[in-house]
Write a structure and sequence with these properties.
The protein is an alpha/beta fold and about 525 residues long. About 35% of the residues lie in helices and about 10% in strands. It contains 20 helices and 15 strands. Helix 18 links the parallel strand 14 and strand 15. Helix 1 crosses helix 3, helix 1 crosses helix 15 and helix 11 crosses helix 18.
């Protein structure tokens, strides 16, 4: 379903657009009652378009509006107005109230999970191999067709494998299947529920729910209020942005586009990626193997949180280098004292990273590409009419390659190769949290001693983040072309390589405790 523009994507975009439009029009003496009109703008009339009734559709949109404004979903045990606490959203300094990822219960389809099901493709064959291989006698034959007793079935899948017609399916909840940390279970009503103690906010569940029942909180309203203030707000744009806003939005138009939204300017976070590369490479050479058996990359917050929580000993091997987002924000605030910084990227987990006490002063807002697209729509920005500016700010090909799986490890290995002749770094990578977990299990067993490990929560890397718009394969190709167009190839040749010295070690490394 990823990369296909669906009704779910359309509703999300329209909600983001309406919230952005409301924020651009907001005045201090307004009471935000205009919020009440938005569900009717998105779902007009009494004839339903997507679900059983237009009234249910609007109820779901109401929850999406609150989440898009950074507010919590309503408690449906008591009556709470849609506008409750809405005035908080008008304050730029407002942070998210956890949880970040939320399930709108009355939008959940209560999908069957882990169920073996015989479909109409069953041909009632004479051999009945499905019955013969079942170890629990759960498969029986009625009227020539196979039937599965769910009470006896142990979900081993042997019947599915044995069927020559592919007539048996294993049904799984898309959100459960997408969750690499097994944080989603079924509540007492059959709806999906997130165990927040396990969730790392990667957002893969919301990106894969075909009913649009899962959503994360956004800072659209707060960001726009900051833009409309007297404080300059800079957009720090993640390397995965290439192509996300359509073919008319070329890299040379990015700065003009974000200025049209009211930002002071836009810079590419690939600059911070170059700085992160240098920092991680130096960490590796200093610490492996004398202090640590291996080193793992630090730039993906969902991977980092999962590793440190579930593999505490191996989690200590994650580099203490700050992420590209934070390094870019810190550099902007050093060069433009008093400014605010909005990170624009593909990732839900970055929203929680920016909430850490040690990072709040560096990154003020986090928006996804999808949310920003709603802002462009609200401002009627025509990409075709934008003037071209000089290309972004001189990041290297390796810095831009952070957007795809394997890009971080490649950049660090190339830096070491150029600056430490004769040293060859062995690397291993995993994308998708389930694969990351397997990699850490092998590292725990000593299989990767001396290695540089790269972990990415999203399958394919950042280009597959929950807030992306275009198909993953297309994004990979677009990033590859952007890398080829870079004037410098490796981070060691970055025009910003000397910035690390000017920032100092305390400005480039995360504190031991958050």
């Amino acid at each position: 379903m990823r990369g296909i523009y669906t009704n779910v994507n359309d509703i999300r975009k329209r909600v983001f657009s309406e919230v952005a439009r409301l924020s651009y029009e907001y005045k201090e003496d307004m009471d935000l009652e205009q919020m009440r009109q938005i569900p009717y703008n998105v779902i007009p009339g009494i004839v339903s378009s997507y679900r059983d009734s237009a009234f249910l559709e609007r109820a779901i949109v109401r929850e999406r509006i609150r989440l898009a404004m950074g507010l919590s979903v309503q408690n449906h045990d008591d009556y709470i107005p849609m506008t409750a606490d809405a005035i908080k959203a008008a304050k730029p300094e407002t942070y998210y109230e956890p949880p970040l990822i939320n399930i709108i219960k009355f939008a959940c389809h209560k999908c069957p999970d882990n169920v073996m099901k015989v479909t109409d493709a069953c041909q009632g064959c004479l051999a009945h191999p499905c019955k013969e291989v079942c170890p629990k006698g759960a498969v029986s034959i009625y009227d020539g067709k196979s039937h599965i007793d769910q009470e006896k079935c142990i979900k081993c899948g042997k019947c599915k494998s044995a069927c020559s017609y592919g007539a048996i399916l294993k049904m799984e909840r898309p959100c459960v299947k997408a969750c690499g940390v097994k944080a989603i279970h079924e509540d007492e009503n059959g709806c999906a529920e997130i165990d927040q103690s396990k969730c790392v906010s990667c957002g893969q569940c919301l990106a894969n729910c075909p009913f649009g029942a899962i959503a994360d909180k956004a800072q659209i309203f707060q960001t726009i209020q900051a833009i409309r203030s007297d404080v300059p707000v800079y957009a720090a744009i993640a390397p995965a942005f290439i192509g996300q806003f359509g073919p008319e939005m070329t890299p040379k138009k990015i700065r003009s586009a974000f200025r049209a939204l009211g930002f002071e300017d836009a810079v590419e976070v690939a600059i911070g990626a170059d700085l992160c590369t240098i920092s991680e490479a130096e960490d590796f050479m200093r610490e492996v193997p004398d202090e640590k058996p291996f080193m793992a990359t630090s730039c993906c917050p969902a991977w980092s949180v999962m590793a440190k929580r579930d593999f505490p000993e191996q989690g200590k091997c994650i580099s203490m280098a700050l992420t590209p987002m934070v390094l870019t924000g810190r550099l902007l605030k050093k060069n433009h004292p008093g400014c605010k910084v909005a990170f624009i990227g593909p990732c839900s987990a970055k929203k929680l990273e920016a909430m850490r006490r040690s990072i709040r002063s560096d990154i003020d807002f986090v928006l996804t590409f999808e949310e920003v697209m709603g802002m462009f729509d609200a401002k009627d920005v025509n990409f075709a009419e934008l003037e071209e500016d000089h290309s972004m700010h001189g990041a290297t090909a390796d810095g831009r390659g952070f957007a795809v799986g394997g890009g971080v490890a490649h950049a660090v290995a190339e830096y070491i190769k150029e600056n430490y002749p004769g040293v060859e770094v062995q690397t291993e990578r995993a994308d998708g949290l389930e694969n990351c977990r397997k990699m850490l299990m092998l590292a725990k067993a000593g299989k990767y001693n001396g290695y540089l490990l790269e972990g990415m929560a999203c399958p394919g890397g950042c280009v597959a983040g929950a807030g992306t718009i275009q198909p993953i394969a297309k994004s990979v190709g677009a990033v590859s072309n952007a890398m080829k167009a870079s004037s410098n190839e490796h981070s060691s040749t970055s025009i910003y390589a000397d910035v690390l010295n000017s920032l100092g070690e305390g400005d480039t490394r995360a504190p031991e405790e958050e």
